[in-house]
C-alpha cells in the first residue's frame, strides 16, 4: 500500500502534463488557421488558387475516342420519367456535343 | 522470459470489498479494469453490428444499378454513419477494451491508474452514439456529408442534425482522451518492479504510443468540429471563402487529425499480432527493439503525411512531392514489422490455432492494403484513384482485414483467459474460413471497379459495374452473416466449455498467462517480481 501512496504525486504531475498537452493541442488546432497562411507567405507556396482564368484547349484530339454514358433517375416514386435520349455517345476529346434529357 | 511470485494475490480475493458486486449496479459503478474492459468490448461488438447493418443497407442498394431500396439522402446517411460508427464505435473502443483488460495484467499492475475516470470514459460513450443514432430518426435525417464531414457539405449544405453530430463527436473525443491519459499514467507509473520499458510486451508498447497519438490529435478533431459548429450556427467563416475563410483549410485541419487517427486504429493491431505470432511459433519475437522503434517512427511520420488525402485540391508541386515521399517512407518501418513477423515464424514450431489463423490472414491481407496505399501515395496516379472504389478497397483492407481481424485474433487469444473456458474451436474455425473467403469476395473486386472509375459514396452507378457490384454485395452479406458465428462462439465460451489452463496456449509467455484462468477479479495486488 505504501508503494501506491508514493506513486500518487507522480500521477498528479503526469496527469497535469498530459492535460496541458490536450489543451495545447486543442489550441493548436485553432492556431493552424493563421499558421497555414503564415506558412504559405514564408515559403511562397500558395495553396489558394490564383484568380486567372484557365485557358481551354480548342484542339480536338481525333486520335482518341472516348465513350461517355449517361444515366438519370428521379427521386423516389415521383410520377415522372426523366431519361437521357441517348444512353451512350462516342466523342473525341475536345469536341462539343449536346445531349438532351 | 520472466517469471513471477504472486502466491500472495489469491487470498485477497475473499476479502469483502474485493469480490465482484452483483446486479446491474456492478456494471454502472464499476472501477475494475476487467469489468470496464468487458463493457468496452461488448459495446464495440454491438456497434460493429449496428455499423454492419448500415453496410448491409449500402450493399443491398448497390446490388443492382438504379435506385431500389433507399433514397439517395438516406444512402448518404448510411455511408456517413457507417463510417463514424465503425471508426469511433467499433474499432477504437475494442482496442480500449483490450487495453483495459490486458495492459494492467501484462505489466503486473493491480488496476488502471485512474479507475474512476476509467468508469467515466466508458459510460459517456453509449450516450455519444445514442445521440448520433437518434439523429437518423429526426426530421431531415442524420449527418449525410461523409464521415470526413468536409466543409462546406457539413456547414452550408448540412441538415439540422449537424449540431447533434458535433456534440456526439465531442463526447467520443473526450472519452478517447480520458482513456489515453489513463493508459499513459498506468504504463508510466504502475509497472511492476523490474518491468523496464524495453521488457514491456509489444501490445503495451504499441498502446503507449497510440495513447500519445490520441492526446495529440483528438483535441484537433474537437477543434475542427467546433469550427464547423460555429461556421454553421454562429456566423464565423473559418471555412467559408465568402467570409475570408478557406474550405481547403478544413481538409488540412481534418487530416492533421485524420492521418494519425488511422495509425491509432492500426498500431494496437500490430501489438496484438506481435503477441500472438511468437506464441504459436514457439519462438521469441524476432527484432523486439526494432519493432518498438518502427512503431515510434510510424507514429512520428504520421504527423507529416496528412495532405496525401488532398492531392487533388490544387496543391503546389513542392507540397505534392513532399507528401508523396513522406507517405512512401512510412512503408519502411511497416515493412520492418511485416518482415519481423515472418522472421518470427521462420523455422518456428508453428501450430494453427484460431488466433494464429487470424494473425496470418492479418499479415497477408494487411500487406495488400498497405500496397494499395503505396499506389495511392503516387501523386499522379492518385488523381485517377481519388474518391473511387479503389480507395474504399484500400481502407477496408487495412481496417477490416487489418484492425478487425487483429481484434478477432486478440479476442480468440485472450477469451479463455477472460472466461476460464476454451471456446468451440470448430465453430471458431468455421467463422475464420467464412470470414476469410467472404471478406475477399467483398473487398477485392472493389479494386477493379475503382480502377475502372466507379466513384465512392454513390447510390447508383453506370451499368458496366453491375456484375462486379453484385459479387461485392454477395460477399458483403456473407461476411456480415459470418460474424454472427463470432457472437455464438463468445456466448458459448462465456456459458461454459472445457476448462482452460492458466497458460491456455502451450507457447504463451508473459504475466497474463501466470494468473489463474479465468483471471480473478483482482490480480497483482502485490506486484510480481520480474526476473
UniProtKB/TrEMBL annotation, chain B:
* GO MF annotation, one: metal ion binding
Q: What does this protein's UniProt record list under function?
A: Cytochrome c oxidase is the component of the respiratory chain that catalyzes the reduction of oxygen to water. Subunits 1-3 form the functional core of the enzyme complex. CO I is the catalytic subunit of the enzyme. Electrons originating in cytochrome c are transferred via the copper A center of subunit 2 and heme A of subunit 1 to the bimetallic center formed by heme A3 and copper B.
Q: Which residues form the Cytochrome oxidase subunit I profile domain?
A: 27-531
What's a GO cellular component annotated to this UniProt protein?
plasma membrane
Write down the membrane topology: Multi-pass membrane protein
**Location within or outside the cell:** Cell membrane; Membrane
Family the entry assigns: Belongs to the heme-copper respiratory oxidase family.
> Which named protein is this?
Cytochrome c oxidase subunit 1
Give the pathway listed in the UniProt entry for this protein. Answer: Energy metabolism; oxidative phosphorylation
Which NCBIfam families does the record match to this protein? CtaD_CoxA (TIGR02891)
Entry's EC annotation: 7.1.1.9
- Catalytic activity line of the entry: 4 Fe(II)-[cytochrome c] + O2 + 8 H(+)(in) = 4 Fe(III)-[cytochrome c] + 2 H2O + 4 H(+)(out)
Instruction: Report if keyword Transmembrane helix is assigned.
Output: yes
Q: Which UniProt keywords apply?
A: Cell membrane, Copper, Electron transport, Heme, Iron, Membrane, Metal-binding, Oxidoreductase, Respiratory chain, Translocase, Transmembrane, Transmembrane helix, Transport
**Membrane-spanning intervals of the chain:** 39-60, 80-99, 120-138, 163-190, 202-229, 249-273, 285-307, 322-342, 354-378, 390-415, 427-448, 468-491
Q: Name one GO biological process term.
A: respiratory electron transport chain
Q: Which PANTHER family match?
A: CYTOCHROME C OXIDASE SUBUNIT 1
What is the organism field in this record? Psychrosphaera haliotis
Q: Does the keyword Chaperone apply?
A: no
Amino acid at each position: 500500500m505504501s508503494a501506491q501512496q508514493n506513486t500518487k504525486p507522480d500521477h498528479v504531475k503526469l496527469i497535469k502534463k498530459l492535460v496541458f498537452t490536450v489543451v495545447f493541442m486543442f489550441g493548436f488546432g485553432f492556431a493552424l488557421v493563421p499558421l497555414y497562411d503564415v506558412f504559405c507567405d514564408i515559403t511562397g507556396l500558395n495553396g489558394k488558387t490564383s484568380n486567372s482564368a484557365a485557358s481551354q484547349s480548342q484542339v480536338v484530339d481525333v486520335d482518341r475516342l472516348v465513350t461517355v454514358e449517361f444515366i438519370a433517375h428521379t427521386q423516389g416514386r415521383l410520377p415522372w420519367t426523366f431519361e437521357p435520349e441517348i444512353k451512350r455517345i462516342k466523342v473525341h476529346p475536345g469536341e462539343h456535343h449536346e445531349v438532351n434529357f | 522470459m520472466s517469471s513471477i511470485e504472486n502466491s500472495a494475490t489469491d487470498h485477497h480475493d475473499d476479502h469483502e470489498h474485493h469480490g465482484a458486486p452483483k446486479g446491474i449496479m456492478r456494471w454502472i459503478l464499476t472501477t475494475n479494469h476487467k469489468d470496464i474492459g468487458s463493457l468496452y468490448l461488448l459495446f464495440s461488438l454491438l456497434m460493429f453490428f449496428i455499423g454492419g447493418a448500415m453496410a448491409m443497407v449500402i450493399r443491398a442498394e448497390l446490388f443492382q444499378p438504379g435506385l431500389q431500396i433507399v433514397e439517395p439522402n438516406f444512402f448518404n446517411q448510411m455511408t456517413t454513419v457507417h463510417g463514424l460508427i465503425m471508426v469511433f464505435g467499433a474499432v477504437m473502443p475494442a482496442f480500449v477494451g483490450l487495453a483495459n483488460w490486458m495492459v494492467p495484467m501484462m505489466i503486473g499492475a493491480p488496476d488502471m491508474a485512474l479507475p474512476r475516470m476509467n468508469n467515466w470514459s466508458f459510460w459517456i460513450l453509449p450516450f455519444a452514439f445514442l445521440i448520433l443514432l437518434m439523429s437518423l430518426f429526426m426530421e431531415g435525417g442524420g449527418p449525410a456529408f461523409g464521415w470526413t464531414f468536409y466543409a462546406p457539405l457539413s456547414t452550408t449544405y448540412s441538415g439540422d442534425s449537424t449540431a447533434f453530430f458535433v456534440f456526439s463527436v465531442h463526447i467520443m473525443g473526450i472519452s478517447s482522451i480520458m482513456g489515453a491519459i489513463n493508459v499513459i499514467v498506468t504504463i508510466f507509473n504502475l509497472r511492476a518492479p523490474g518491468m523496464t520499458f524495453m521488457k514491456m510486451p509489444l501490445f503495451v508498447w504499441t498502446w503507449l504510443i497510440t495513447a500519445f497519438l490520441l492526446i495529440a490529435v483528438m483535441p484537433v478533431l474537437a477543434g475542427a468540429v467546433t469550427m464547423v459548429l460555429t461556421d454553421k450556427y454562429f456566423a464565423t467563416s473559418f471555412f467559408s471563402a465568402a467570409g475570408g475563410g478557406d474550405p481547403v483549410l478544413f481538409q488540412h485541419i481534418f487530416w492533421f487529425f485524420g492521418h494519425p487517427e488511422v495509425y491509432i486504429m492500426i498500431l494496437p493491431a500490430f501489438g496484438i499480432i506481435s503477441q500472438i505470432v511468437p506464441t504459436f511459433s514457439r519462438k521469441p519475437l524476432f527484432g523486439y527493439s526494432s519493432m518498438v522503434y518502427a512503431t515510434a517512427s510510424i507514429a512520428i511520420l504520421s504527423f507529416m503525411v496528412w495532405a496525401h488525402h488532398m492531392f487533388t485540391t490544387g496543391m503546389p508541386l513542392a507540397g505534392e512531392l513532399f507528401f508523396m515521399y513522406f507517405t512512401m517512407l512510412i512503408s519502411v518501418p511497416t515493412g520492418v514489422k511485416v518482415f519481423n513477423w515472418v522472421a518470427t515464424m521462420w523455422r518456428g514450431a508453428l501450430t494453427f490455432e484460431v488466433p494464429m489463423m487470424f494473425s496470418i490472414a492479418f499479415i497477408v491481407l494487411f500487406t495488400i492494403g498497405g500496397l494499395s496505399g503505396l499506389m495511392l501515395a503516387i501523386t499522379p496516379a492518385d488523381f485517377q484513384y481519388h474518391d473511387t472504389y479503389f480507395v474504399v478497397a484500400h481502407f477496408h483492407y487495412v481496417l477490416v482485414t487489418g484492425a478487425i481481424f487483429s481484434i478477432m485474433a486478440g479476442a480468440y487469444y485472450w477469451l479463455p483467459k477472460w472466461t476460464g473456458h476454451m471456446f468451440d474451436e470448430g465453430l471458431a474455425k468455421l467463422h475464420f474460413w467464412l470470414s476469410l473467403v467472404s471478406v475477399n469476395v467483398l473487398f477485392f473486386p472493389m479494386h477493379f471497379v475503382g480502377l475502372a472509375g466507379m466513384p465512392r459514396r454513390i447510390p447508383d452507378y453506370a451499368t458496366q459495374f453491375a456484375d462486379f457490384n453484385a459479387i461485392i454485395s454477395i460477399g458483403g452479406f456473407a461476411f456480415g452473416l459470418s460474424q454472427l458465428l463470432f457472437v455464438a462462439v463468445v456466448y458459448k465460451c462465456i456459458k461454459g466449455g472445457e476448462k482452460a489452463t492458466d497458460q491456455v496456449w502451450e507457447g504463451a509467455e508473459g504475466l497474463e498467462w501466470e494468473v489463474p484462468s479465468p483471471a480473478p477479479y483482482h490480480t497483482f495486488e502485490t506486484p510480481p517480481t520480474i526476473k
